[in-house]
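S.,

Sequence below, as promised.
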Amino acid sequence: MTKFATTLACQLAAAIPGAAPFIENAVKVEPGLLQSGLAAQLRRLVFEPFKAAAKRGHLLAATLLKGPFLVVIDGLDECEDRQDVATFIDEMLDFFKKNPLVPLRFLITSRVEQHIQSRLMNKQVRLENLINYSSRDDILTFLRTCFDTERLRNPIIKAFIESSGEWPVKADLDTLVDHIDGSFIFASALFRYIVDPVEELSTPMDRLPHTLNMNPGLDTLYAQTLSRSKDLPHFSDIISAIAMLFKPLPITGIAELLGIEPFEVIRVLVNLQAIIHIPGTDELPVTLCHTSLRDFLTDEHRSGLFVAPRSYHLHFRFFV
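The prediction came back faster than expected:
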């Protein structure tokens, strides 16, 4: 949460240029503001600049046409600093209590956590319980859009459709959606696996029915993908380093850390693009497509021979 208010302020200035001068003035008037507490930063860098911009009429035309501005905060429960999370909610509600007509709204998603839920049980807040919400139609729309896009750029799929007709057919797509069982993470990962350009021994048309045999969840997909590189030199060191690093490193950084050549890192990772993001430049870090891969790699009961034991941190001393 240490950069939460300044991140909001930066996005506020980009979305509403009329608020930028008020943010800049707040920093000039209070040189120590960026080192102050979250409550003060939220008031001076976010709420007050928005209110000032609204008062000057900068937002009138936009709000009349489209309604209030919306700030979306996804996964608030993932912030470990519970006190600052509580502070944010308290400051937000206090601002709206004093300024009920300001054209600003917050949409917050979160698991049910006591320090969050207890503060949101407030007449200013509209709560929605998504436990019983079915995301099937949303996932179907997501996959249709992904496959439509892939058809336009994948010559193999394009050639198959020209000779054999529609792909995937409605029945296969419906079966895939049922198999995904409401998980967007699983849907995204399965789609990447199906259209993965690295897999040369099979086509997307071959891989789609194969995904239906994978257990719901990501463990089978992770193991299947990792097995492509498991016999390559330095595989375990590279995967363990990526899983254990507190801060992601670029390919050159991983190579330097492990005392190997960058091409050896690329050789392992190029087969794993369905689950690991490989940057296009040497400056950008290698990152996991989803944090659940780290959970998989650090749990021996789930990952088996692919496990990255937490004790691997000790090996870094020798590499360095």
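The beta strands are 69-73, 104-108, 276-277, 287-288.

Coffee later?
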